[in-house]
Amino acid sequence: KDLAKGLIALYAERQRRPGFAFSPDSPWQKEFEEAFDYEETDDQLRAIAEIKADMERSTPMDRLLCGDVGYGKTEVALRAAMKCILDGKQCAILVPTTVLARQHYQTAMRRFFGYPVEIALLSRYSTPGQKKDILKKTLAGSVDLLIGTHSLLQKSVVFKDLGLLIVDEEQRFGVTHKEKLKEMSKGVDVLT
């Protein structure tokens, strides 16, 4: 009951608190999207347009993206990440498993190849030295896109300017995790 009360208060605060209104698409955004190897489905195009419209509003976005495996949800999310990064904000992608974190990292490295985007992966396989370096760079703002598991929810993870939080497979996180997520993203756009 306490968690539910906290979440209700948090959602109310998110609605009252002004968020960041992202800029309209830039030429780099268009170039990034045109480099996609596949033809987008009508549903993908509609979801992308709706997410961008939400991101361009000054109210923090809270959007749920649903679709079957293999229908391009990751591409939709990466386009939102690019929009965020092009406006000088940081993006975080939270996933429930190390395997999925690694897959997203590899996909992001391929998709952002050739763009000045610093991507980091934080998981239980990161060495203490790697974690320390990633946390330092994230706090300094030199990591544009941080992909990770539950380790992103630790108090030691501090962003310089988080603009977008993407949560993959939200149903695999518990209520307590979700509360931590929302606390860390009060004025931040959230795409689940």
Give keywords.
6-stranded parallel β-sheet; globular; 7 helices; 6 strands; alpha/beta; 192 residues
Q: What do the pLDDT scores average to?
A: 89
What is the topology, as strand order, of the major beta sheet?
A: 1-6-5-2-4-3
Largest sheet: 6 strands, parallel
Shape: globular
Mind telling me the C-alpha Rg? 16 Å
- Contiguous low-pLDDT stretches (5 residues minimum) are none
N-to-C terminal Cα separation, in Å? 23 Å
Number of strands: 6
Range of strand content: 5-15%
Tally of DSSP helical segments: 7
What's the assembly state of these chains?
Answer: single chain
Computed structural class: alpha/beta
SSE sequence, one letter per element = HHHEHEHEHEEHE
Fraction of residues in H or I helices: 40-55%
SSE map:
Elements: H1 2-16, H2 27-34, H3 42-55, E1 62-63, H4 73-86, E2 90-94, H5 98-111, E3 119-122, H6 128-140, E4 145-148, E5 162-167, H7 175-184, E6 189-191
Parallel strand pairs: 1-6, 2-4, 2-5, 3-4, 5-6
Provide structural commentary.
This protein is of the alpha/beta class. It has helices at residues 2-16, 27-34, 42-55, 73-86, 98-111, 128-140, 175-184, and strands at 62-63, 90-94, 119-122, 145-148, 162-167, 189-191. Strands 1-6-5-2-4-3 form a 6-stranded parallel β-sheet, sandwiched between helices. Helix 1 (2-16) packs parallel to helix 7, helix 2 runs antiparallel to helix 4 and helix 3 (42-55) runs parallel beside helix 4. The longest helix has 15 residues, at 2-16. The two termini are 23 Å apart. The model has no long low-confidence stretch (mean pLDDT 89).
